[in-house]
Amino acid sequence: MPAADGDPKRAVQALIQAAGSGSRLGQGPKAFVALGERTLLERSIALFRDIADHVIVAVPTTELARARALLAGSQVDVIPGGESRSQTTRRLIEASSSPWLLLHDVVHPFASPALVRRVLDAAITHGASAPAVSNAEFLYDTDGNPLHAPGAVLIGQKPVGLSREKLQAAYRVSPALPGDPSVLEVLAAAGTPTRFVPGDRQNIKITEPDDLALARALIALET
User: Fold this and answer.
1) Is the entire prediction scored with pTM above 0.85?
2) How many other C-beta atoms are found inside a 10 Å radius of the C-beta of residue 188?
């Protein structure tokens, strides 16, 4: 059942980043990469079916018709993404209207409903939340010097849970950040902390061909 439970103050929208070109992956636009019998985009939408009241996805402008055809009849809004991740995020936020947002990326196809609910519950309590796992090995700098022992650093995952009101306020007051800042960087710059919840090591990010090979191996184990 959607998280809103009939209460408009708890209405939730899932915002899915699917505008990546997939250049490093070498399989075409990320949204349409096949994993098992479904695309990454279809898997992400299915994740939020029983949690979010509404889903908005952003895809490359050149792929709007393809995405809308793929999702025909699903009551999912498809909008054009931006030139960068942060621009795509801003467009998704501008298209949203619910007080609570779940920001996801199609390159995290193994996020579970239980993980999403942990993130959402923490976001409603604290204003912003994200799943994370600790580093399992020593981390070194490029000169080979040890920086962090195992368990000393958190590695963020998706989805991110957010108060739309707090996020909009953060964008208004945050200084212009260099590069392609994430929403958590924008919130931090505005003085809004993120509450991290336990992530899942199987919630891998598909960026390189080796990642896709691993993901397909995991899918094969499920069948």
Assistant:
1) yes
2) 17
